[in-house]
What we know:
Shape: globular
Radius of gyration: 17 Å
CATH topology: TIM Barrel
Largest sheet: 8 strands, parallel, barrel
CATH superfamily: Aldolase class I
Strand order of the largest sheet: 1-2-3-4-5-6-7-8
Helix content: 40-55%
Order of helices and strands: EHHEHEHEHEHEHHEHEHH
Number of helices: 11
CATH class: Alpha Beta
Amino acid sequence: MEKLRLGVNIDHVATVRNARGSAWPDPLRAAILAEASGADGITAHLREDPRHIRFADMDALRAGIGIPLNFECAATDEMAAIALRLKPHAVCLVPERREERTTEGGLDVAGDENRLTQYVAPLRAAGCRVSMFIGHAEAQIRASARIGAAVVELHTGHYSDLHAEGRDDAAETELEALRQGAALAHSLGLEVHAGHGLTYDNVAPIAAIPEVRELNIGHFLIGEAIFMGLGPAIEEMRRRMDQARLRRG
């Protein structure tokens, strides 16, 4: 199978920085280190309440890294204007609620199809690869294809939670649904990514899905960096992803 790409999300470097209201640690420095350690791309989620990544961070990342930047954001006019100014490699549209701790579930593309069709068009025209962060439901995958998205990123949070709780049968059922969703998306001409909640312990079955081309992982890697350093944490994730891919191939 084709080598699996690793996108490293550096949001929570900014979370640590913002806890003290200082300039340290610097998300750009983390992104540059991730690039040097084998990351294929950098993901950053600029929320409407910039609780971690800030507006200035996006400018710094766009100018300071040599690998693709994946700009995660809600589908708002403000974020569209920023994306059209920065022209990152990719724009991943995610659901967003002020009260949530992290992104909960996937975007309801099917329920907002007309608006999202119009939202995606200028981003595509500007050269951005537009991705929908969705669950594995068939309706959401088909709607993502209809609105002109290039990519779907399948939300692996539920699978990750079930795995962590030791609910093996339920985790396997969710994994099979992700496999079927990936196959459907690929058949519709969509590139398939996956992410949310992935760790060393649960990444292999997701990495082994043949249609998946990229994994986006952040919180776990930043947490592991406390104990082993960011570079080694990324290198170990890369090793486990590659190993799973080779076994599957």
